[in-house]
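Justification of computing resources. Each target in the renewal requires a structure prediction run like the one illustrated here; the chain below, 446 residues long, is used simply to show the kind of job we budget for.
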Amino acid sequence: MKKIGSVLLPFFAAALAVSCELYPMEPLRVTAWTPDTAVVDTAALEAVSLTFSADVQERLIESSFTLEEDDLPLDGTFVWLDDRTMRFQPHTPFSAHARYRITLATSAEDRDGNSLKEPFVHEFRGCADTERPALLSVTPADDSITDTVTPDLEFVFSEPMDRGSVLDGITISPPAAGYYTESANHAAFRFILTENLRWQTRYTMTIPGTVRDNNGNDKGSAETFSFFTGSDSRNPEIETVSVTRPDRTILVPDDPDDNTETVTAGIEKDAAILIRFSEPVARESAGKNLTITPAVPYDTSWDDDDAVLTLTPREHFPYDCLYTLVLAESITDRQGNPLAASVTCKFRTDGAASRPPEIARAAFTNTFSAGTPVLPLTVLEPLSIITFSSAVCEAPCYGFFDIHAVLAPGASLVPASIYSSLSLSADNATVTPVACQTGESITFMA
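Resulting structure tokens:
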């Protein structure tokens, strides 16, 4: 038994010596990097590199590595110069105006499984300028009121700016349609409106902290400015609605709440309508927001102050027709304020001067002399028929139609319109119109 024990002891001692062999336990370190300065000639820089304190696992190093340009990761190609040195070349060239950051996370390990104690971070840029740009002025000024919907919108910075960061960064709310122009030194930017802003609206302009100068320095903090479109908040009113015939007759508005229809009568067929506002109004809004029913084609004209609108019908109104004129509340003044209230006017085109001729009496006789007529005076009714029992005279036989009409004041009948409108037919005879006499005037037909 003693011999057996003496033989086994060396065996176990050898086994113990093998199992207790020690591995390096020091954390992995980055011992060198390029570029190793904060300011770099980016025009000459093609790649970045890291050198490690031990042989590393390439796959873990690559998955733990990032190179950022202005906080955005860059794609590129890894090249291993040896087991401890990695080179990374981005697919796009380095920029003199950007900020770069190399980061290696603690997931990076050497071949013995030792990782970084803390992330490795190195930042560099292509310019020594580290001063942030400042916003010197904004137009319109903050909390200002404008009397136009096409104001100048301008942003002035303390130094030349990166154009893309300004154009992509500045916001206007509600959105405005337009485009930017910039000064020759890229320090001032003007927004040119291609559409008018809205009246009576507060606009907010935000300049974010991400806008940066030409050397990549960002502004750091955001600034917000606002302005209001409209120095006048009063609602316009309709002072009067009138017609030109009879001269300056006022159309009384119809109140829909009083249960009584208000109609202004006696309007002539050739009247124009005048609408007087309490202040200048936006022409386009007036044209879109007034209606005449039944529809009437008309032309519009304005006074020099845009406060009086004239509607001139292209044709005469039909006689004795009821019309409704509606001026909607959505008519606005020049600063977008709507009417205080809509207005409805009703009028009837039954003016005395517009009255059409009315046939009061028609009769037939065959003499205008004092002698005894062959046929007594016959008062006619519409579609009257006159019958002769026998010939009353030798051909040609002359007869007369005596027509009495009620006319508008100062009006007279047009002879041609009488005989062109008179229809006669005869059986066993021929009727030929010869002349038309009105008063002392007689007109012979051709």
